[in-house]
């Protein structure tokens, strides 16, 4: 009988200890204990969405909980970003973002910026290439640049829309004294079609999007938007061979990045980070990146990520403002002009 009583007392003590644990400790120790939402602030089927749909199942496998993609498109990613920010800072909402977040404030699309989120990982970026139609008179980037100098405002370039990567790349050419005639086409595909058809003289294209056009001969690549020779296009020179002064602004990536709302607990971020790192080492992810010829950026540290976006925001927000493309001065948001 004494043994039974002693056993019951031990069970009672253990049970009391378990009950005595705070709900907060239990919750944090068990993160995640429900589904995680991956917010993609662009439409289904777009470039960012396609990358997210390869990443999500690998992320899910390593988190041990379902990961659901929610597309919230509009306002260059601002609508989805605001939706993610409105959710609790508990790690159950992760933003699959891109570079547009850096310019929301100066463009007047949202009051949010990178300062309102914590980065988990930079992921990938697509190589940017300057391309012309197959029957273009330009066979080198140097020829294109010389024609722009000889005919200011006459050489036509297409881009998808205000604040997008092509827009910023065109503004960078203007910053360096190349007066190109820039026309928005409302999307990457229409912008590329305008180039293929010869409606415009050139554009900046994502290599993943244009490589098929290059292979069949519908487009010619003149230069890469890099300061160094690309391993992917080893026979195409970097733009700095012709415009060396561009080097101070490069590299200027337009990547995907995983973010959580600022204030998310550190231990929760650690769980998300660990699952992300495992997903990025998965052979399926590595094969996807290789097949699309993407550049991996997941080796950047947290400090390097912050430094990169500070630089990117400084360069691009002032480019937009100086060109009259943004309604707000970067000074309103204490963004200093970039000087290397």
From TrEMBL:
Protein name: Tripartite tricarboxylate transporter substrate binding protein
Protein family per UniProt: Belongs to the UPF0065 (bug) family.
Organism: Wansuia hejianensis
One Pfam assignment: TctC
């Amino acid at each position: 009988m004494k043994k039974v009583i002693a056993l019951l007392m031990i069970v009672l003590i253990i049970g009391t200890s378990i009950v005595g644990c705070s709900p907060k400790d239990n919750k944090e120790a068990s993160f995640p204990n429900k589904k995680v939402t991956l917010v993609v602030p662009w439409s289904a089927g777009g470039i960012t969405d396609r990358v997210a749909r390869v990443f999500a199942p690998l992320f899910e496998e390593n988190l041990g909980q379902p990961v659901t993609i929610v597309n919230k498109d509009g306002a260059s990613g601002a609508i989805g970003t605001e939706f993610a920010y409105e959710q609790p800072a508990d790690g159950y909402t992760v933003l699959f973002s891109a570079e547009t977040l850096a310019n929301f404030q100066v463009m007047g699309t949202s009051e949010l910026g990178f300062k309102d989120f914590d980065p988990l990982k930079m992921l990938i970026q697509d190589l940017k290439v300057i391309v012309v139609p197959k029957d273009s008179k330009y066979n080198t980037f140097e020829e294109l640049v010389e024609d722009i100098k000889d005919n200011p405002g006459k050489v036509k370039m297409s881009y998808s829309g205000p604040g997008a990567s092509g827009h910023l790349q065109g503004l960078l050419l203007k910053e360096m004294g190349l007066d190109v005639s820039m026309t928005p086409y409302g999307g990457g595909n229409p912008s590329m079609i305008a180039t293929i058809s010869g409606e415009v003289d050139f554009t900046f294209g994502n290599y993943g999007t244009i490589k098929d056009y290059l292979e069949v001969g519908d487009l010619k690549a003149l230069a890469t938007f890099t300061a160094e020779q690309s391993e992917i296009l080893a026979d195409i020179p970097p733009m700095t061979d012709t415009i060396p002064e561009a080097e101070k602004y490069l590299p200027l990536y337009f990547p995907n990045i995983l973010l959580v709302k600022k204030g998310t607990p550190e231990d929760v971020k650690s769980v998300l980070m660990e699952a992300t790192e495992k997903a990025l080492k998965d052979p399926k992810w590595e094969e996807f990146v290789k097949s699309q010829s993407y550049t991996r950026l997941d080796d950047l540290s947290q400090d390097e990520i912050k430094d990169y976006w500070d630089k990117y925001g400084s360069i691009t927000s002032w480019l937009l403002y100086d060109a009259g493309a943004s309604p707000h001065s970067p000074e309103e948001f204490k963004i200093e002009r970039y000087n290397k």
